[in-house]
Amino acid sequence: MARQVFRPGQTVALRSRVGLSPVTPSLFQVQMRLTDSRGRSMYRIRNNQHDYERVEPGSNLAPQD
Question: d(Cα 4, Cα 10) in Å, to the nearest integer?
Fold first, then answer.
C-alpha cells in the first residue's frame, strides 16, 4: 500500500475514532507534517470551528477533498 502524504490546508477525516469523545469533530485541516522518533509521518491537524487541535499518524487520516 502506498504511503499517503497530506499537504497543509488539506481536509482530512479520522479513519478510527476509537476512544474519542462523540463530540470530537469529524473533519480537520492539516496544519503541518511532523516525524516521530521512528520516522513515521505524523500530522498536526485542526478543526477551527470547534477550536480543536491534535496530532495523528498519517495512517489514521483519510483525504476528504
Answer: 12
